[in-house]
Each structure stands twice: as structure tokens, then as C-alpha cells.
Amino acid sequence: MSALRRIDHGTDHLKTLALGDFELKSGDVLHNAQITYATFGTPDKPAIVNPTWYSGVIGDCFWLIGSDKALDPEKYFIIVPALFGNGESTSPTNSEQRPFPRVEYFDNVRAQRLLVEHLGVTHVAAVLGFSMGGQQTYEWAVQHPDLVDENSKIIPICSSARTSPHNFVFLEGPKSALLAGDKNTLSRKAFGRVWAGWGLSQAWYRARLWEKQGFKSLDAFLEGNYDQFGLVKDPDNLLVMLDTWQRGDVSKYSFDGNLDAALRSIKAKALILPCMTDLYFPPEDSFNELASFSDKERASVVPIPSVWGHAAGGQANPEDQKWVMEKVKGFLESK
Asked: In this structure, which topology does domain 15-164+248-333 adopt according to CATH?
């Protein structure tokens, strides 16, 4: 994720599905759980699931949706479900449950399946997502091959099937910043400053691209973007999602930790889009995971040629946005 661009879409599009007391893989129960979502198009069209990402809300996924975009509501039934912890689905900010229980990708995607079935969908034509949304994409393909089958497609963008040790350690930085200051103002700014060194690449900073964003200095950029990112997001929500991210592993429950076997089980055709300069999910991780796919002719890794690091997979840079849009659109329309 990146703090570079935020769009206020309002809340009129939001819908909710009550899940009741929702049992989690940890053995805990999420009381009075609900999953919040938005839909576009009608259920008689091929269904596409596009989950949210770290700190993102449902509206942040809208950049791919529209009649002139990759996800055309005239062609597809698009479902955008929110992560537990993002502030829309059940989260610390809208629940009285304390301590808030641990929620994993397995739990999120199981809730999303209940949503999909509630909406009358019996086959998922495609799942795609950015960052944590991409990790949920892998989870869909591995855990629910009856819905995401050989006739389906998956598109993980700047993501991975398992959170790497290096990725886990990076996340310890912003987590420690929040906890060290007991989530106060200074610790929330520190959270943003830690993130600033990771969301964008070394090449981005070397080229002083903050100047093209309208900032006269690097300090002004940090204050105007990443400080604000730490201040506007609820720290408890951030910690819940961060914990989910750190524990990401599609093989954890169904394949006893055997990632090779989990990826080999994927039936769907896959287009994997890392960014060549992503510091969270480097393309090497994607190529390593690709080696485990059973049918190499139905899976490919195509790195985004950008210096924008992890932010290249979102909506931060118009050139990257166009590149990703064209790749997603072309893949969805291919046979």
C-alpha cells in the first residue's frame, strides 16, 4: 500500500451481510460479525471478486471498475468485500469485542465465500487483488477450488502466496512503532515514517519524484503523506490487518505448510503482477512461487516496469495504473 493517493468515495455503495458469531481458525469467535461489501453489475454475469488491501477501504478498489476499465459492470458481476479490521467489515472501531480476536486470510475468505453464495454465485470467474488483496486471491484459489476452478482466473498484484520472512520482519517495524508509544500521536507518526522507507523504491527517492507530486522538499512530502497516513488510520484496525498479513500462508491449514503442494493444487489460470522494485513482495518471490504451479502454460509472472515500488500496483501513478489496467483487461478477455 501507499499513502500517496486517497479518494473519498462516500459510503452510499456499502452493503453488509450479517454472519452472527463467526468461528475463526484460531478457535476464537468474532461476535456479531458482519462482512461489508459493494457490488457492480448483475448476478447473471460472470462473477469477479476483488478484495480490499492493507488500510484500504472498498472505495479504493474502484479505480479498476467502470465501463471503460478492466472490470466492466456490463460484462461482469463485481464483488468487492472488505477485510476484517479495515473499519468497514467487523473491526476494532465498530465492535465492542476486546481483546479483538486474531483473524487470518482463511477466515476472511471463508466469510467472502458465504457472501458470494448469499449473492447467488455458484462459480467465480476471477479473483484479483492488490497487496493483501492478492494474498486473498491466492487463498481463494487454494481453499475453494470448487468455485475457483480450471475455468477461473486469478490476478495477484504486488503480492505473494506466503508472507516471506523479510516481509514479516519489515512489518515488525511499523507494528513496534505503534506499540512502543501506546498508539499515541507520536507513535502513529513514527508508524508512517517507517512505512515511507518501504512503500516506494530507492529509485523513486533517488529521482526526487516527490517534486512531481507538488512537494518542495522531502520533509514536506513525509509530513504531507506518510505522517498523515499514520494519523488518519485507526491504530487498532491497522494492527489487526497487520497481524493477518504477517500470518499469510495459503498452505498453512490445508497442506500442512507445504507451499509447493498448495500452489500445485491451483486449478485457475494465473497472471501474477509483481513490481520490479517492490520491497515487500519482490518479483523473485513470485518467480519462486511460479515454479510450483502444475501447469506453467496457464500461469505467468509479468513484472510491472516501474520505480514506484509497491505503490505501482495500486493507483498512485497514472502510467502504472494504465499498464496494470491493460494487463488485467487483456487477461480477463483472453481464452
From this structure: Rossmann fold (3.40.50)
